[in-house]
Amino acid sequence: MNKNVFLLAFVIWATSITANAQVLNKNTTFKVGGLGRSVLTSDKLSGDLVEGDTISPKKGLGGYTLFDLNMDLTINKIFNANTILRMKNPYGTFYGQDTKFEFRQLQFRGQIGRKLKYELGDIYIGLTPFTVFNANEPLDNRFEADVFKARRDILNYENFYVGNKWRLQGLQLFYNVDSVLVFQKIGINVFGVRTNATNETTIPDRILFGGRLDVLQSARFKFGVNAVSFSDLAVASSASKFGNDVFSSDLEFNLQNDALLFAIGGEAGTSSSSYNDKLTGTSNSYSDYFYKPEIKLAFKPAKIGLTASYRNVGAQFNSPTAQTQRVNSSYNPSIFPTVNSATTNRGAMIFDRTTQEQSYNRNISQTMQGFLPQYGNITPYGPATANRAGLSVGLATDTSLKNISAEVNFDMLSEVQGEGTTELRKFTGIRGGVLVNIGGLAKLNRVIDISAGVKSENTIRGGAAEVDFRSTVIDAGLAIETLKRVDLIGGVKLLTAKGNEYLTTRDINNLATGFTPYLYDGSENIYSAGLRFRFAEFAQASVVYNTSQLKRNTVTGTNYNFDQLFFNFTLKF
Amino acid sequence: MNRIEKISTFLLAVAILIGVFAACKRTFKDEEFMGTAVRSAPADFSGIIIDTEPKTYLRKEAVIAPPAAPTTRTYELVDENYPGGIEFGTAAASRVAFVNEFSHDVTWFLKISGRTSGAIKEYTGTSKKIDSNIVYWDGAADGTRFFIFNEFADYTLSFLGSSISYNGLLKIANSAIKGPKKYPQFSKLLPDGSYYTYEQIDNFDLNISSTNTGLRTSYGDAADGAGKAVFFVTDTKQVDGYFSYYMKGTDNNGNNYLGGASGELLEELKGHIKESDPSKVYVNAYIYGYGRPNSALFFQAFENDFINPDDLSGPSRNAATSDMWFTIVEVNWVGWKLVSIPYSSFKPASNPLSGGGGNRIKEPKKIVGFGIELESYPNSGGTAELALDVVVISTNGVFKP
Predict the structure, then answer these.
(1) CB contact, 8 Å: A257 with chain B?
(2) 3-state SS, residue A288
(3) Least packed by Cβ within 10 Å: which of A185, A335, A375, B326?
(4) Contact B20/A269, CB-based, under 8 Å?
(5) In whole angstroms, what is the distance from residue A287 CA to residue A510 CA?
(6) Rounded Cα distance, B138 and B81, in Å
(7) Ranges of each domain in chain B
(8) Of A119, A89, A87, residue with least CA distance to A103
């Protein structure tokens, strides 16, 4: 029997069982939710890059309709089953040829006894920024225009990005107990997942175990201990064996009164990695550490908070579950993938990174992936970026402010160890923004939001292999409710960068081996405007016109425009 | 919190920190820097200062010694032992060495580009001299395009932070190389999965009796009369190597089917696919579209449901009792496009006499052969036209050239 048909039959069967269970068990509940989305795009490529090119595609239509049916069955507190069945049909196919039925999620969870909770199947795991942390991509910030956030919501949903957790498959347990010795509360979270499946010959199963001990001593002091460990379950013919262990501890101690909150804390830890290549008979292992003390000051009446931290993350600190990037920088877009008479990959630009869900990554990478410095050069791998030391200072409004939100952060970092030279790179950066709800401030019963953000980075290195690379990303956006539930939305994202850098090549051990010179002098911009119709709390549609340009100031024949008319209807209940 | 509690809390925090740091160490803290050295050319850098050992290397190496003065002059290699060009593989250790010494320690880049094949080989290093024992060219190429015989290859030697560069021209004259390197090199394990090339087209008409080669037998639908499909290798366009596989036909009898090609014995893939999960096996191919509507290519995977995939024992494939799975690619573009299709998306054949009578379980390990069909699809009665090159079976990910 076709697998999909079997799965569908199983759902129908489960549904019918539920109906019976409702009669048999008063605690049994069955809830249905879902998300439907229809997307249609009309795309056009123009400019120097494709001028005179009669072979490469320059216009196209695309899109799909999908529906995720979420079924949640609770027998009692011991057992809950949650499934999401997806039906997806791309536009332009015939006879339902490419229509797909698949389980997007299958999860069992419940409680055993009074204290122990479990999750099985598709689970979300997350610990601290240096251990298990799915860091946002460098262009993502909370001051993005609504018109871009809507696209990012789609790619986050499609890639299972919920907060900064990774969605993996395995088992997770939670155990909480109150009042133990001198501690108010102790929580334990452990998990085990498989991140890679064996091919039964050369590739071993890869298992990730981890957990956290969370101790609340009092309202003033808490600490945690984290452990994450990768190991390969090698079969006799395995070509390699990889291992990685990360341990860390974090704590926070605070003092506060009605006017002020003072907190001191931070995180410190160590990593050790090993890789045994059985084909060549070589093996390598190394270890490193990090520490990041932090001070927080919150001025309560003013609703402003100040943070200052110092970090030292070793050059060989290796934490795959915290350093894996969301964006795959080498991804080649599926829209207009080739140019130069269809002989050359176009490569992703800022618009692809902001809108194409396929350019994002769901898997944990054993080694640090490559990145492009114009999008983010200071911490491309998130807070756990290796080989960084220095001071960071931030000022932000309190999250309780509903109508104004603002923050500014300064980074003054350098490398811990030189790359290809004894000279160290020095990084300075400023990022921040403001989001104002004018409708709320003026007590108007309508949406009038404006936002603006900026990220500016500067990287320099002296000596025999000089580096001088500067980049700036500016975000601006607005959303104005012009008619009842009809919003005018618009936004820009402007990137300019100039200078020289080196792209690092890493071996399978995650160690830097070579450096490729990289020159960039140009800009990548997106301008978007459209209308959003909010039919109801659970349904909205938008029509947006996007125009995006890539310009290279020193390379001729490479500039191009990417225009897209985007229609989106989303239903969520 | 009283004073004693505060002190004990503070001591606990300190103890935790000490405990963590006691376990910390940095393995490479004494290394001066990470990775290979990178060094820009200084202001007084003057490029190559010595031509060493011209034309006298005795290990059948063709020594390339660019002129001392920076120039863009090109020349054809006329080594006295190889007047017709470099003959890789004709004798032990035949290779090209670049023997140069520079005025300073510098990071250098050496790039060799095939003019016909588009193949590229690159080297880089930081040194005062290119060590010919370490850096030499044996005809290898980076990526998926390969150098071919009787082609010219440009080489460029450049330096980090300097406008000085040296260019030259090599000729590859190795009759032992029948075109590009063969794709079976992808059968080795790569970090992101493994590849196996089923058909590269370039040796299409060779070794017809071999069970280790790809598409061999082609057949057009005779009922289409004058529109009967034609299938032939052509050198008018190709992704790699010399040839691609051209297909064209008109569906005069309105049955969609135009013709196809498959392995001679349907044994050629036996034992090559080690993956058992259909979602991890991909069929990848370059397809050239001519912009004709209703041009479609069917990929067919033939399983032998009666072989043991571990020791490959069992009878030959019987079409009536083993599965055939297929997928359809509508070729609605102009130019070359790399198409990658997961085996999990293949659909079962419905005719019990030609692949619809197997166990209906998708088992990649039991795939013994592949076939293709040209179809007028989705509408019958049309003229379909396309070309095919480099069919690659990959596991654990799509083929990434």
Answers:
(1) no
(2) strand
(3) A185
(4) yes
(5) 12
(6) 16
(7) 48-172, 183-395
(8) A87
Alpha helices in B146-220 (DSSP H): none
> Does any CB of chain B come closer than 8 Å to the CB of residue A554?
no
Q: How far apart are CA A405 and CA A435, in angstroms?
A: 5
Owner of token pair 């689970």: A123
**Residue B353, helix vs strand vs coil:** coil
Question: DSSP labels for B249-275?
Answer: EE-TTSSSEEEEEEESSS-TTTTT---
Q: How does the average pLDDT of chain A come out, rounded?
A: 90
CA–CA separation, A547 and B160 (whole Å): 37
Whose tokens are 């605070």? That residue is A254
Tokens of A152: 């990012």
Tokens 């580009």 sit at which residue?
A: B113
Q: Which three-class secondary structure state does DSSP give residue B2?
A: coil
Q: Would you state the structure tokens that stand for residue B153, as one six-digit string?
A: 């290859």
Give the position of tokens 């036909």.
B249
Chain B nearest-CA distance from A73, in A, is 29
With contact defined as beta carbons under 8 Å apart, do A289 and A314 qualify?
Answer: yes
User: What gap in Å lies between CA B187 and CA A329, rounded to an integer?
Assistant: 26
Summarised one tens digit per residue, pLDDT across range A65-104 is: 999 999 999 998 899 999 999 999 888 766 666 678 888 9
Distance CA A189, CA A226 (A): 9
Compute the distance between CA of residue B349 and CA of residue B360 in angstroms, rounded to an integer: 9
Residue of B nearest to A513 (CA): B35
- ipTM surpasses cut 0.85: no
pLDDT tens digits, residue range A37-51? Answer: 999 999 999 999 988
Q: How many C-beta neighbours within 10 Å does residue A55 have?
A: 19
Q: Are B386 and B192 in contact (CB under 8 A)?
A: no
Fold of B183-395: Jelly Rolls (2.60.120)
Q: Which of residues 417-446 of A touch B (CB under 8 A)?
A: 417-422
**Full DSSP string of A100-168:** EEEEEEEEEEEEETTTEEEEEEEEEE---TTTS--PPPTT--TTS-HHHHHHHHHHHHHTT-BTTBEEE
- One-letter amino acid of A198: T
Instruction: For residue B34, give how far its alpha carbon lies from the nearest alpha carbon of chain A (Å).
Output: 5
A559 vs B31: which has the higher pLDDT:
A559
Rounded alpha-carbon distances, angstroms, from residue A432 to A19, A146, A150, A387, A408:
52, 17, 20, 24, 4
> CA-CA distance, B247 to A161, in Å (whole number)?
45
Cα-only R_g, chain A: 25
Which residues lie below 8 Å from residue A393, measured CB to CB, with a gap of 6+? A306, A307, A308, A309, A409, A410
Please list, in sequence order, all residues whose beta carbon lies within 8 angstroms of the beta carbon of residue A253, skipping any fewer than 6 positions away.
A220, A221, A263, A264, A265, B9, B10, B13
* Cα first-last separation, chain B: 65
For residues A365 and A252, give the distance between their C-alpha atoms in angstroms, rounded to a whole number.
Answer: 31
Residue ranges with strand state E in A26-115: 29-46, 59-76, 79-90, 100-112
Q: A549 touching B, CB under 8 A? A: no
pLDDT tens over chain B, length 401 residues:
566 666 666 676 667 666 666 566 777 767 778 888 999 999 899 887 754 443 323 233 445 555 444 333 333 333 444 445 566 655 434 567 776 788 899 999 999 888 877 778 899 999 988 887 788 777 777 765 667 666 778 888 889 989 888 877 777 765 433 333 333 333 333 444 466 666 766 655 433 334 445 676 778 888 898 888 888 777 666 666 667 788 999 999 988 999 988 876 777 788 778 888 888 888 888 888 887 888 999 999 999 999 988 787 888 888 888 999 999 888 887 777 888 888 988 888 888 777 888 888 899 999 988 889 999 988 888 899 999 988 888 887 777 66
DSSP code at position B237: S
d(CA A334, CA A321): 27
In chain A, which residues have their Cβ closer than 8 Å to the Cβ of B188?
none
